[in-house]
Design goal:
Elements (H helix, E strand, L loop, with lengths): L1 H28 L3 H26 L3 H19 L1 H9 L11 H8 L1
Length: 110
């Protein structure tokens, strides 16, 4: 179990460092963080899948290469996308704000 949790820790540390460095480079050369995240980080997370698929395909296991890519994309869609939103919803960083406006009601009826 120790090696698994240490692997997860290393992945978390390297992911944090990669995002921080990409943001710094983007700010330095004037590219918005959103664009850097959509291009550089997306490519950086897809390259390991590409390498593993190419290696397996060269070994004659083309079906395994395709299933690796499809499985990785399914995991990204089912876990990678919803998990940050779930954490955001369960652990809000700011208190909830309730807006009460009686003028809005009058404007709608006018």
């Amino acid at each position: 179990y120790a090696s698994f949790f240490l692997s997860i820790l290393w992945i978390a540390l390297f992911s944090f460092a990669m995002v921080t460095w990409v943001e710094i480079v983007g700010n330095t050369i004037g590219i918005p963080s959103v664009i850097m995240g959509l291009t550089v980080l997306a490519a950086g997370t897809s390259v390991p899948d590409l390498f593993s698929s190419v290696i397996v395909a060269r070994m004659g296991q083309g079906d395994m290469a395709v299933s690796s890519s499809i499985g990785s994309n399914i995991f990204d869609i089912l876990v990678g996308l919803p998990l940050p939103w779930l954490v955001f919803l369960l652990w809000p960083s700011t208190p909830n704000v309730v807006l009460v406006s009686f003028a809005l009601k009058n404007e709608i009826f006018v």
